[in-house]
Each structure stands twice: as structure tokens, then as C-alpha cells.
């Protein structure tokens, strides 16, 4: 099965957020939870200066994170918006754009998931291959789901989660 899509900034933002939240989201949540806890502890201990300092540090980290992500999206080169072709076959998954060509065999993939914004194919130590769903028709998605069901037993880790149902969110 061969699909060609043209990504836009919204695709990069949504897919990037989805993928980075899985990796860094837990750490970010933990760090911000610690800052909130420390700030409340300082307030309860009547250490107003400490609470204000922690609040400013937390707010500054959030602003830096959000502005860095927005700056990265604005700096995307023209080739990032060129047509990208995805091929899903008996051999595995291949992505080809004007800038790069990536291929992953089924045995090298740990999971293949259909999430709310993209199909994601990933293995240990690999950058995931993400196929945005925005431009896919219902027929495209049904055909892709059928291909994924056909080859799911070839995934490298048989205990890996395989789902063709959209994740919540």
C-alpha cells in the first residue's frame, strides 16, 4: 500500500506533541508537580520569597518550552512541506521525502499504532515513523488497517501493544 501526504505545520505540531508527550511528558509532569509542591510547601511554611522564586522558575520554564516549540515550527525548511510517500508492505514500512528515505522492517518495529492524529511505527532506539491521518480518506484508513492487521504478527516484540483503534485524546 502506497500513500502520499503533504504535511503542514499543524501536522508537525500535533504529531510532535503526541510523540514528545509520550517520552518527555511524564518527566515534565513530574518536574512541574515538584515545583508546585515546593511552592505550596514554601507558602505553608510562610516563606513567601521561596514560593515566588519557585513560581517564577516554573513559569519561566513553561514559557521557554512553548516559545522553543513555536520557534522550531517556524524554522521548518521548505522540503518539510513537500510530498512524503509512505509504503506499507510485507517487508515493513518505508517513508520517502525529498530530504530523506527511511525504512523499517517489521522485525525491527516494536509497535504499530493508530492514534488520534497519526499512525505511528516505532522500534527500540528508532525515531518513530509517523503517518499523519489528516489527509487520509476513510478508504485509505480502512485499507491501512487491513494491511496492519495482516502483518502484525511480524512485529519484533510479540508482546507489544498493537491497536487499530484511535487512542483517546
Explained architecture:
The protein has 169 residues and is α+β, with helices and mostly antiparallel strands. The protein is 46% helix and 20% strand. It has 3 helices and 7 strands. It has helices spanning 9-44, 48-74, 138-151, and strands spanning 2-6, 83-88, 92-96, 101-105, 111-114, 118-122, 129-132. A 4-stranded antiparallel beta sheet has the order 1-2-3-4. A hairpin with a 3-residue loop joins strand 5 (111-114) and strand 6. Helix 1 (9-44) packs antiparallel against helix 2. The longest helix is centred in the N-terminal third of the chain and has 36 residues, at 9-44.
Defining key terms:
169 residues; alpha+beta; four-stranded antiparallel β-sheet; 46% helix; elongated; disordered C terminus
Q: β content, as a range?
A: 15-25%
Largest sheet: 4 strands, antiparallel
**Strand/helix succession:** EHHEEEEEEH
Mean pLDDT, nearest integer? 78
* Class computed from helices, strands and strand pairing: alpha+beta
Overall spatial form: elongated
Radius of gyration: 20 Å
Task: Give the helix tally.
Answer: 3
Distance between the termini: 27 Å
Strands ordered across the widest β-sheet = 1-2-3-4
Low-confidence stretches: 158-169
Number of strands: 7
Amino acid at each position: 500500500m502506497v500513500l502520499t501526504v503533504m504535511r503542514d505545520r499543524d501536522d508537525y505540531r500535533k504529531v510532535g506533541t503526541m510523540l514528545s508527550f509520550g517520552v518527555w511528558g511524564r518527566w515534565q509532569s513530574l518536574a512541574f508537580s515538584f515545583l508546585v509542591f515546593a511552592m505550596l510547601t514554601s507558602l505553608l511554611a510562610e516563606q513567601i520569597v521561596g514560593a515566588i522564586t519557585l513560581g517564577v522558575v516554573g513559569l519561566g520554564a513553561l514559557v521557554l518550552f512553548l516559545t522553543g516549540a513555536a520557534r522550531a515550527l517556524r524554522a521548518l525548511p521548505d522540503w518539510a512541506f513537500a510530498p512524503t510517500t509512505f509504503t506499507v508492505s510485507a517487508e515493513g514500512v518505508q517513508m520517502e521525502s525529498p530530504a530523506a528515505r527511511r525504512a523499517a522492517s517489521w522485525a525491527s518495529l516494536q509497535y504499530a499504532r493508530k492514534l488520534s492524529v497519526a499512525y505511528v511505527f516505532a522500534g527500540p532506539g528508532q525515531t518513530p515513523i509517523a503517518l499523519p491521518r489528516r489527509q487520509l480518506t476513510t478508504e485509505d484508513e480502512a485499507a491501512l488497517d487491513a494491511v496492519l492487521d495482516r502483518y502484525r504478527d511480524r512485529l519484533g516484540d510479540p508482546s507489544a501493544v498493537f491497536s487499530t483503534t484511535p487512542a483517546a485524546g
